[in-house]
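All the exercises in this workshop are built on plain-text protein records. A record pairs a protein's sequence with a compact description of its fold. The structure tokens are whole numbers drawn from a learned vocabulary of backbone shapes. Once this layout is familiar, the rest of the handout is easier to follow. An example says more than a description, so a record of this kind follows.
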Amino acid sequence: MDVTSTYKFARISARKARDVAREIQGLPVSVALDLLNFTPRKGAELFGKTMKAALADAENNFELAVDGLYVKSAVVGEGPTFKRFKARARGSAASIRKRTSHITVVLSDEVVGESAAPAKNVSREKAAAKPAREEKKATPAKESAPKSSARVDEKLGMVYDSAPSEFDDLKEINGVGPKLEEKLNSIGIYRFEQIAEWTEENVKEFDELLSFKGRIERDEWIEKAKQLHKEKHG
């Protein structure tokens, strides 16, 4: 059953009152009243009076249980506007509009099921669950990737279909920074061993493919990769 209460000609603009109406829409009466009591806005005070009137009507006239009621709808309509004027310079006048609004609150005890829950509560639950999913996605792909065997590409030399379980820090090679390391990882280069086995044809291919502009030979990547691979793996 629905119980309606209306506060007419409330001395507040409809735009300001609607901010409060959106907050209590779909909430249980007890939660809505607590929210209004601790909201320092004029609209919250006016909505509190309107809701208490509806509660008294539901309890005394319709004999409904107050605990089972929830805010079915909270609507704010525009009322008449009082026009006033204020004296300004050189005998002119500035208009002042004192707006009013009609506040309507509908309480209901109908059990609609899960659909009666407010949409904003659902969005909050999703927002709370979202960070947990983001943490899983934040794990670097090359660290969580399963083990995979290397494959030999005639054009690009030995590359990996996906990141191996053990990979090297390619930034230890002179001239390789974070951006260049990302480029190398994007084509399956993760270990010193792969760079150490590059041929002249591979070097030309990578220069054209990744726009290294002769940096491989200038910084002696292959010699440095051989040295690092020997130090690490013997």
